[in-house]
Amino acid sequence: MTHTGLRATDTPTDPGSYAAARLRLLTGEPGEPGKPGEAPAGPALRTALARLTDGWLGALLGRAHDVALVAVGGYGRGELSPRSDLDLLLLHHPGADPARVAAVADRVWYPVWDMGLALDHAVRTPAGARATAADDLKVHLGLLDARHLAGDPALTTALRTTAYADWRAQAPRRLPELRELCEERAARQGELRFLLEPDLKEARGGLRDVTALRAVAASWLADAPRQGLEEARTLLLDTRDALHRTTGRATDRLTLQEQDQVAAALGLPGADALLSRVYRAAATVSYAGDVTWREVGRVLRARSGRPRVRRVLGGLGGRGGFVEPERLPLAEGVVEQDGEAVLARTARPDRDPVLPLRAAAAAARAGLPLAPHTVRRLAAAGPLPVPWPAEARERLVTLLGAGEHTVAAWEALESEGVVSRLLPEWERVRHRPQRNAVHRWTVDRHLVETCVRAAALARRVARPDLLLVAALLHDIGKGSDGDHSVEGEAVARDVALRIGFAAEDASVVATLVRHHLLLVETATRRDLDDPATVRAVTDAVADTGTLELLHALTEADALATGPAAWSVWRASLVDGLVRRAGAVLAGEPVVERADAAPPTDGRLRPAAAEARASGGPVVRLSAHEDGAELLLAVPDQPGVLPAAAGVLALHRLTVRAADVRAVDGVLLLRWRVATEYGELPEASRLRSDLVRALDGSLDVAGRLAEREAVYAPRRRGSLPPPSVTVAEGGSRSATVLEVRAEDAPGLLYRIGRALEGAGVWVRGAYVSTLGGSVVDAFYVTGAGGDPLGEREAVAVAGAVERVLG
């Protein structure tokens, strides 16, 4: 793309002229009246901006003897983003007059500062620059990209020659240092391809890692895989350019509120499309880094040991007088060599379509990486017949069941597109972001991580093959509109049939995908003692074998989601639901009950009895490894739920889960809570404040409103509005209202106040918090104890929704 606003002969020498030319370049404003301009983008923009800046800085230096102005780092590569720093080095001969060198430096630095541009600068002799690089790895990396701008070119040439010679000579020491630097940065910044607000430069798989790979290549010890790496680097740079232009700031962090604007600037339909492309690029960089650093380690280990002299007399047995690397068989056509899984010499991928799965499974079982050249050869394998032969299906299951090593083998196949050729449906979820704070991974990586977790549970089920395939496919519907469980059911059935499962087994896989959220959602949002709750499971799952698989899949899915998705509390609720449903599926009758069941927890019975006898609240607080448990027993009366929730909020206790039930005139509340900061309050203080809240002497609403006024301005970003719905068939003895909202201090208090204001009684509540979102279920009745009528239920739901809105 050619820029029309600046002629090749233009060399702005003052800040005003340079600023005007820079603005025309970035905005595409016409350089002359009547001539339309077009702003360049991508590499053309970075190159044009670097050349424009080169000319300006060269003119600022002017004619100067014994000095050279050198660009280093990204600017040295001739790539200048709209808000990038200028990394400059002023070189001078050792015998140059210090006062004159200082005057020359001021002549360059001050106009840059006057422009408001960020400047990273240094003044050194070539020997000084070399000495600094020897002590500072980052300085040495910058010198590898040194580029002459103006002055004495011999100084720049000598600097580059020395920098490269030192780098190659010191590579055995410098490269481990560079790898450690990359690992420390990754630990601080995280993995770019899994972050909702990634740092395009510092996160693992970002631009810093690309620079590190260039440095490794410059050492001549190893080289990064070239396939797709330059395209990935260009995409990350283009995204950073768009971020700079839309924000007007020198930032590398792609925050949520900027993503739609950046996507539009790049011609993409929205933030998800942008993140998907960025994640794909980061995955390419990360994989290249894994391969490159593994090769660096191999080379350095080989250099550190003495070569093994050939033992065969007469010069036979190996080339060059050394024993060839030992090759140990792993599977048909697959061997281990130098700590990697490679293809045997007789392997023919073009004639063996099962070989990619066989090689990946063998590598994962052995805990070995697949060699890059092996993966490239596997990409040439022919298509599998439909349905797959039994060996292909078995090798897939073996790969999925290999535990933690599954991830590396799967990503190696993905790097060459092998996975998408075997399972075209994979493209629906590949690098797909999940805009939920609970999820640690993109959809595709979450599916593989679920397989890792499921492999650890394989001994609990009779059909581990069905469990592992369902784990791989349970979120495959997230690539479509609508309910991903419903969409995924049909996709999973088709895939299961195609890979060779019988129709009955394919139906089980489809059922697991359709209902993979059923157990955890039902257990945490419904009354386990209500027959309708158990019936929701038994209506969906036909037999105990499928229930067993669904139980394992539920746990694997939650563990692979993130630490907030699973806990001892949730596990106990799911276990209780599975026991009840399993008993019914085994032939035991469903016990109908009209009244609330007596408390089954041994700690609740004494508390309930004490509350009835004293006529006041009873509070029990105990700390556990995964939080704290608060037990309340309060004589049933209006306002108990909002009062208790309000007191917890005032004491900065976050409710992670809760259940509330009314039994024999006592409201029993069991809360799982965590402190926002500090230590747990004393139970006596909680009881005292609860008594005051119930009698009206504690202004809970006013105190919470004051806190909301302080914290509300700190929140950012737009959030979906809360919703309140009536759960059809949730219970025969009560009306079930489901509340979905963003978590906030005092939210449960506001819900309780809204329900009290609507004139209904809360007979039970089941609170579930995941990350920043809550899904709460409230069992309510009218004053007479009967479920609400349809119109009344809808009206109450609407009233609560308006209060929350």
From TrEMBL:
InterPro entries tied to this protein: ACT-like_dom_sf (IPR045865), ACT_dom (IPR002912), HD/PDEase_dom (IPR003607), HD_domain (IPR006674), NT_sf (IPR043519), PII_UdlTrfase/GS_AdlTrfase (IPR013546), UTase/UR (IPR010043)
Family annotation (PROSITE patterns): ACT, HD
Cofactor: Mg(2+)
Keyword vocabulary terms for this entry: Hydrolase, Magnesium, Multifunctional enzyme, Nucleotidyltransferase, Repeat, Transferase
Region of interest called Uridylyltransferase, as start-end residue ranges on this chain: 1-329
GO function term, MF aspect, one: nucleotidyltransferase activity
A Pfam family hit: HD
Record NCBIfam families: PRK03381.1, UTase_glnD
PANTHER family per record: BIFUNCTIONAL URIDYLYLTRANSFERASE/URIDYLYL-REMOVING ENZYME, BIFUNCTIONAL URIDYLYLTRANSFERASE_URIDYLYL-REMOVING ENZYME
Protein name: Bifunctional uridylyltransferase/uridylyl-removing enzyme
UniProt source species: Streptomyces luteireticuli
